[in-house]
Amino acid sequence: MTTAKTEPNILENYTFFVIPSWGHLLGYPTLGQYSNHKVSKISHDLVIFFSGADCSVQTEKGTLYYLFGLGSYYTQFELQSGRYITDNRQLTSLVLSDFVYDHLSTSKNLTLENDRDVIVSENLFKLPIDLSFKSENKRTFIQGTLMRNLFIPYKDLILEFMEALKNPQSFQVDKTGPILLSTHRDSYNQILLSTKMDYDMKSKFLNPTAGLNGITLDSKKHLEQYFSYQNLQYIEELILKLKRVYSTIDYDPMYLFSILVNAALRFRSEVGSSNVQKVERSDEKLPKESIFLSAEPRMNSFVDWPESFRRRTKDELERSVIQVKSKIYQAEEIDKGDIKVEEFGLEHEEFKIRNMKRPLVDIKTLPLIPTSNSLEILLVIKDIVNQDYDIRSIGRALEIARDYIRSMILHSNVLWEMSRYVNLYQKVEPNIGLSSKEKFELGEQIKKWINLMINVQSS
Questions:
Q1: How far from the centroid of its chain's Cα atoms is residue 287's Cα?
Q2: What integer is the mean pLDDT of 32-50?
Q3: Are 394 and 434 in contact (CB under 8 A)?
Q4: Global pTM value
Q5: For the residues of 315-384, what is the DSSP string, one character each?
Q6: 140, 151, 222, 438: least CB-packed within 10 angstroms?
Q7: What would the pLDDT profile of 324-353 be if each residue is shown by its tens digit?
Q8: Which candidate, 199, 196, 201, places its Cα nearest to that of 169?
Q9: Number of other residues whose CB lies within 10 A of the CB of residue 301
């Protein structure tokens, strides 16, 4: 005779939920691997989530908190070989152990300390999708705060997530099964996939990535421990409903708060949820932030961070990396023993050597770089590259340009790419110039940046 399973109470909770650094939240457990290569540095490890429901489950090892919806784990990182990579993984659930939840809910507030519904802290941005229950003055203040602290700094990543939602092949949870980002003690800092995925999709999704301890095929088995078939069907239908809404709403890419405004309108008109928050909660000071509705009964209890998951800093983790300079990144290993020298013409080899050779150049003073117009900045950088400055000076010019553009809060991808060149060029010996191949490739990259700025200024 089987014992009836106690059904966890799943509560509808439509929120925008962002963890700016997954590694910082967990105390940087690992740098991880990518394509059989060790990661040496992580620049971004953002978790973005549009939730539709949350719930808490009591287990023998403590309380587990689940957030269900549409999410992405986004990383930018560097391999030991010096190769820079960006990667992202689809998610349909976050699984937080009680000690992780309590650490998250007691993170230092950056602003909005007296608003229980909206959180802006060092580890979390969280707000309801529908803010219509707030006064007009409060809504204006919240929008301004979130624009400055979230939507502008992470603009490119949020736009990339919105584009991914439009892809008909994305978040097909009925075909792929659930995808969990877990801090369960038995699957800590792992993504759990479902065996429901077909072979090709499994092969792609199982590839490891930066910042994670692993990716395994346990999501269905994990959920079935705590949720009935009916509950799992409800969760799947909820995720597909969120996919229909967020993949079809209109929004202004220059005003990302419009995503939430238009999503709220759709939910009110089409979903007709009875559990959407309608009343602003009191501003009383509580021991923890109210992140999940299902966690309200535990507002006065805390679980300490266990010694078995030792926390450390990002600097400490990255300093522990043993550099292997001879390791060269290749997406697929190539058997070089099968390549014969006779297959290459001598003229082709000589051209390649000339094309790659770095010349000796004179040290020249950099010209003045504009400070207030991103397009003008990039045009000056383009001239510097074409005028045979030494590589270190080019790196310095890119560093100045990057910092000016950063002050205008434009395009995180441009800043990332500039930083890559800065890091590479500032390590080069003095009086060395770019090879013709390097000059061409950098020139093409700068053209892309210029075209991007032109498009932005004309929009």
A1: 29
A2: 91
A3: yes
A4: 0.71
A5: HHHHHT----TT----SS---GGG--GGGS-HHHHHHHHHHHPPPB----PPPP--SS-HHHHHHHHHHH
A6: 140
A7: 654 544 454 433 333 333 344 444 444 445
A8: 201
A9: 12
